[in-house]
Amino acid sequence: MNFFSLLDLIGTFVFAISGTIAAGEKRLDLFGAAFIGFVTAIGGGTLRDMMIGISPVSWTSSMAYLYVIILAVIITFFLKEQIFRFRRTIFLFDTIGIGVFTIIGVEKALANGINTPVAIIMGILTAVAGGVIRDTLNNEVPQIFKKEIYATACFAGAVVYILLKRFGIQTEANQVATILIIIGIRVISVKQQLGLPRMDFRAQ
Amino acid sequence: MNFFSLLDLIGTFVFAISGTIAAGEKRLDLFGAAFIGFVTAIGGGTLRDMMIGISPVSWTSSMAYLYVIILAVIITFFLKEQIFRFRRTIFLFDTIGIGVFTIIGVEKALANGINTPVAIIMGILTAVAGGVIRDTLNNEVPQIFKKEIYATACFAGAVVYILLKRFGIQTEANQVATILIIIGIRVISVKQQLGLPRMDFRAQ
Amino acid sequence: MNFFSLLDLIGTFVFAISGTIAAGEKRLDLFGAAFIGFVTAIGGGTLRDMMIGISPVSWTSSMAYLYVIILAVIITFFLKEQIFRFRRTIFLFDTIGIGVFTIIGVEKALANGINTPVAIIMGILTAVAGGVIRDTLNNEVPQIFKKEIYATACFAGAVVYILLKRFGIQTEANQVATILIIIGIRVISVKQQLGLPRMDFRAQ
To answer: How does it sit in the membrane (chains A, B, C) (predicted)?
Structure first.
């Protein structure tokens, strides 16, 4: 297993934690937590695979994802206090996770003959759809539709990744650069409380 | 590009507007609006393609859909007042859109070996699923489950389309007839405030 | 048609009833009821098929499912009182339904080269995803995330089924044993008001 695959598993782990925490906020039971933890972690990649025609979907062929998710759900379920203590670390790895997921989404799309603009969308979708499904199952409007520059960071990362790839930059260097850009944009936007402009179409 | 393809793009455009407006009612940010606009426009066709086995899903192979959706989101986001002024026109093109989407859904299903009753369902699904996903992401019970004869118009249109096709009517004439029937049913039901019978299973 | 296929159709019928009842609790119209009844009945199998690559998805190739679902929706819509009178019978057949759906999910996954742990997940998903989609469309947190040992019964059933299969038990005997175990676990958990431990991550 190379370093990028390790980051992928860490991203999966942290996404499953975020799903389990969200389930806990609604006082769900262990199954609800496991279900939401699971779909948060694999939802984006699953949707991408179903849309571009990779079947069976990627996570089903490796046991590693499954075990990492189960581990994340159990740890979060039983070690609530510790999870909260590590929330800065979790935030960091969550951001690394969206970087890794964006890159994987772009690469899988391109490898399956998808054109570049749609591949960028598939990268973003891989990173954000799990969280969208998590919040929807939890009966909330998805958080990323309302705050911080989360998807925008994925978009910027996907564009940079494809540009550097075209310039012939070596894959590992490109991965690191892309992830650093996504981390940079997200950390700055959270610290500065930057967000995208919001709409207001409420009935007047 | 023939006239029917043009109507398809206009339908896509108007569906994306309706998604963006819905996002605005929840005060979402630009990304949330783009996401919901996007899935409203391509959600029905995507679900249909994944269910009948067209991969990659149709919208990914043509850039036209993507650009039309982005245009619709940007216009709606920045020209709120104008959008409201054109709401009758939007309603008309939305209705043309569900007609076109119904026909495309029926045709793609039949072309992929799906039997007639299921092809009718695929036609309806292509037309309505985007709106269902839009409202679900927006944390609302889908509007079309509660008011006006929206899906019923698609159902009637799909049945008429298949019958006329069997009678050997020329495709373009059939498309026009089907869309006119869908427009007719919807406009009359909205004007007369007709709706389907509603259930009431609330705890007594 | 063998006895197992009959149970599958009865399960489909009862799932569609549960979807229609849920729609009635939100005062939806006939189309809303039909839509939710439909996705409750076929949602789990559809998701499973899309994830493991069966296309078109299974229910589209047999008219029986479609007719059974339409029948269930119409009966529930017009015979509300009678439906409530039979609620114990419905509960029993709902439980038989999740047993049948779990077995079908496991078998289809294994037949498509999915490994055993993921096949167990596909069995659970086939049984529970329809209900999850039903509640999500109805703008509720899925019931099975909060009460009784529903998914756990499917999990136990899937494990038992695979074990007995490995021990070379004849398929029909294995099906009966698996369904009885799922019924047993669910009935006992409902009677004893057993549930899984719940989380509580609400902000303090």
So the answer is: Multi-pass membrane protein
The whole-chain average pLDDT of chain B stands at 91
Residue C112 lies in a domain: yes
Residue that wins the pLDDT comparison between A86 and C164? C164
Q: Write down the H helix ranges in B86-170.
A: 87-111, 116-137, 150-166
Distance, in Å, from the CA atom of C73 to the CA atom of C17, rounded to the nearest integer, reads 6
Q: What is the mean pLDDT of chain C?
A: 91
Q: In whole angstroms, how large is the CA radius of gyration of chain A?
A: 17
Chain B positions with Cβ closer than 8 Å to C: 50-53, 55, 112-115, 117-118, 121, 128, 132, 136, 139-142, 144-147, 150-152, 195-203
Q: Is residue A29 part of a domain?
A: yes
Provide the domain limits for residue B175: 3-191
Taking phi over 0 as left and psi of -120 to 50 as alpha, with beta for the rest, B138 belongs to alpha
Mutation to test the C interface, candidates A20, A21, A35, A133, most C Cβ within 10 Å: A35
Domain for residue B17, yes or no? Answer: yes
Q: What is the count of structural domains for chain C?
A: 1
What's the number of CA atoms in the CB half-sphere (13 Å) around residue A154? 29
Give me the pLDDT at residue C202, please: 67
Contacts of B199 in chain C (CB under 8 A): 20, 23-24, 27-30, 33, 77, 80
pLDDT (mean) for B162-182: 95
| CA atoms of C147 and A32, how far apart (whole Å) | 9
Chains that touch C (3 or more CB pairs under 8 A): A, B
The ipTM (two decimal places) reads 0.92
Residue A101 lies in a domain: yes
Rounded to a whole number, what is the largest CA-CA distance in chain C?
A: 57
**What token pair was written down for A60?**
């089903």
Nearest CB to A136 within list B57, B80, B136: B136
